[in-house]
Amino acid sequence: MTPADQPTPAPAPPAPPTPRVRRADAERNRAAILDAADAVFAEHGGAVDVREIARRSGVGMGTLYRHFPTKDDLLLTVLEKQFAAWLAEAHERATGVEDPWQALTGFFEQMLTTQAGNRAVVESYTTHGGPTPDCARRCRTFIDELRTRCLAAGRLRPDVTTDDLLLLSGTLSQAVLTTGDSHPGQWRRLLRISLDGLSSRNTEPLPEV
């Protein structure tokens, strides 16, 4: 048999994608899901259908569930990421302000402004005090630091406790949620009234609990 008579070898099958390529694709898909979830949960809250998140992210439901087996897994991941970013910014702002009272009032203003634009975040604070117990604990620690600074400066009425401030934050968060559609700016009035009540100018003792 001459070389011309020999059969042409079949082309080699394409090489499978390398693990590095697969990992890169998976990371891109995960990032797209989280970006879409950020927006969808902020707009519609935790009750939204995850199919909307898959649609906006451009991935299939199977891909979404491979990364986040349940909607709660996805929601907690998004909320914890947002909380970490918010708390870091809150710390930076508070430490950059010399006036302790301005640091405390700025914290409430920033917290409620953030919640007013994110339905899922405000839901988590009104029901659990934060996305997770650890987030709630870290928030409590930060509020206690702000309270201590204000007390030391004589700007906060001395009988106000950290629990009082936590309850106030939850109450104002609920106001953000319930008035967001009908009166979106009303929480600012309630915040101002509340802050006036916290001032050390008010000397009448608070009721015992």
> If you compute it from the alpha carbons, what radius of gyration comes out, rounded to the nearest whole angstrom?
26 Å
Secondary-structure element string: HHHHHHHHH
Number of domains: 2
CATH architecture of the largest domain: Orthogonal Bundle
Largest sheet: none
Helix content: 55-70%
Count up the helices: 9
User: What fraction of residues sit in β-strands?
Assistant: under 5%
Pfam family, one: TetR_C_43
Protein name: TetR/AcrR family transcriptional regulator
GO molecular function: DNA-binding transcription factor activity; transcription cis-regulatory region binding
Organism: Streptomyces roseirectus
Provide an overview of this structure.
- This protein has two domains: 19-69, Arc Repressor Mutant, subunit A, CATH 1.10.10.60; 76-203, Tetracycline Repressor, domain 2.
- Helix 6 crosses helix 8 (162-179).
- The model has no long low-confidence stretch (mean pLDDT 87).
- It is mainly α.
- The termini are far apart.
- The protein contains nine helices and no strands.
- The protein has helices spanning 19-44, 50-57, 61-67, 71-95, 100-116, 119-128, 133-152, 162-179, 186-198.
- InterPro entries: Homeodomain-like_sf, HTH-type_TetR-like_transc_reg, HTH_TetR, Tet_transcr_reg_TetR-rel_C_sf, TetR_SbtR-like_C.
- Residues 27-86 form the HTH tetR-type domain.
